[in-house]
Amino acid sequence: MSTVYRTQTARAEAGRAEAGRADVVRDGNAERLFRYRPGPDHRHYLICTRCGLSQAVDADLVEDWAERVARSSGFADVRHTLELSGVCPDCCRRRAAAT
Ligand SMILES: [Zn+2]
Ligand SMILES: [Zn+2]
User: Fold this and answer.
1) Are 27 and 7 in contact (CB under 8 A)?
2) 53 and 43 part of one domain
3) Does 15 share its domain with 56?
4) Ligand number nearest to the C-alpha of 62
5) pTM beyond cutoff 0.90
6) Which residues are near ligand 1, the ion (C-beta closer than 5 Å)?
7) What is the domain range of residue 2?
8) Ligand number nearest to the C-alpha of 63
9) Per the structure, how many domains does the chain have?
């Protein structure tokens, strides 16, 4: 076993113990791949700047992209934050009605 292999295994195990977020999966070549699995509190939101409404959005593309970047860069424990803000439909209607 190479040093790299051992290091990655230790890291995966540490991550699992730490936050329950690191997941070890096997691909067809029985190589270990490390997949960042977002926790239940990890969501991205569309936030209304007028009323403060926050709506969870589907961010699978962002998760996949972040994972690819992490893997190709060799960085560990890569995190990201992403927030979308704007004016919600209700506020748009209110704004339209007010003018
Ligand atoms: Zn609003
Ligand atoms: Zn995310």
Assistant:
1) no
2) yes
3) no
4) 2
5) no
6) 48, 50-51, 53, 88, 91
7) 1-37
8) 2
9) 2
**Same-domain status, 55 and 95:** yes
Phi and psi torsions of 78, nearest 5°: -75, 130
| Each residue's pLDDT tens digit, 27-75 | 554 444 444 555 666 889 999 999 999 999 999 999 999 999 999 999 9
pLDDT of residue 43: 87
User: Phi/psi class of residue 24: alpha, beta or left (left: φ > 0; alpha: ψ in -120 to 50)?
Assistant: beta
Higher per-residue confidence, 58 vs 7: 58
- Check whether residue 24 and residue 64 sit in a common domain: no
Distance 92 CA to ligand 1 centre (A): 7
Dist. CA 34–CA 60, nearest whole Å: 17
The answer to whether residues 15 and 30 belong to one domain is: yes
pLDDT of residue 87 exceeding 90: yes
Residues 71 and 86 in one domain: yes
Helix, strand, coil percentages, rounded to 5, for the chain? 40, 25, 35
Q: What is the CA(43)–ligand 1 centre distance, in A?
A: 19
